Amino acid sequence: MSLPVRALQLGESESEELERNLWNDRFVPAVMHTNGRSVPISVRYRGGHTRGYPKRSYEVVRQGQSFHYNAEFDDPSMIRNALSFRFFSEIGVPSPRTKHVRLTRNGEPLGVYLEIEGVERKFFRRRGIGYSSLFYAVNNNADFGIRNPETNRNKSSLMSGYEHRAGDARERTRLTAFIRGLNERTGSRAAAFLNKRLDVDNYLRWLAGAVLTGNYDGFEQNYALYRSRKTGKFRIIPWDYEGTWGRNCYGRLVSSGLVEVTGYNHLTRKLLEHDSFRARYKAILGRALQGPFTERKIMPVVDEMISKLAPYIREDRMRRWSYGEFLGEADIIRDYIRERRSLVSSAIRKM
């Protein structure tokens, strides 16, 4: 099956404005041709350090829904985000849908991109999830602590690591009260507070996903936090998992033991201080090792993704990595799974 094409069409003035706005987040109007239709859109560049790369990533809003078109420039496999989100879904954590596509801009081929569903209104509607608030964790101040991780001084605002995306001002108060409360309480009071305000099962499944895939950058940022309308509890969604499965977010090979099995951030530490929460986490990890996190389950997905992309990766002249390096990625991911399973199994026995 061929990869679908997403064709961006920008006017000359809009293209110039997009370049001027490289490091801010202003959208410009454009048109996207997709599935035989032409749809008016808004488009901007997205990402952090990746905006300086020759193959840039985009955010597109079409028909009221946000899509991210990731160049995955640092990932020689082009599949780590897609594979990670698929794995999260397997262990019961709502995750963005993804699709590999070919992207063009004003008729110029830009190569293979990963289309990622934005976490916003339609994400929740599609899954039948009611939500009262939504926050994006955009920097490492989203570590659930009350002190700045770099200066160790009290944060000027407990919202400093978050972008408020949905919900009224009272939701900001609820989130800051949650962060303050989990830091101020200890012992049984802390456990009762967390059970009341946090969907603990969802959080521990998310923690297991971040730990098993090895996302070092996923604990203090790169997640979405929302409050369930039904239960009133906070729940978490993964985001940006390019640096996983044996490579970091810059594409460098890293040790399979880089990420501690207990993860890290203030909320995780608070949870795992309690025997009951720790036992639940161990059980979630154990079940993952018995099924979802196995070579038998994951490698057929890897091989299918690699095979589907191969003809288009060979032709993509905008990539940082060679075609040969791309073909070797299945072995790197397989080795990572083997090593990570062994490390996690050993750590579970000691927890």
UniProtKB/TrEMBL annotation:
Superkingdom as given in the UniProt entry: Bacteria
Transferase recorded as keyword: yes
Keywords, comma-separated and alphabetical: Kinase, Transferase
InterPro entries, per database record: Spore_coat_CotH_CotH2/3/7
UniProt-recorded Gene Ontology molecular function terms: kinase activity
Protein name, UniProt field: CotH kinase family protein
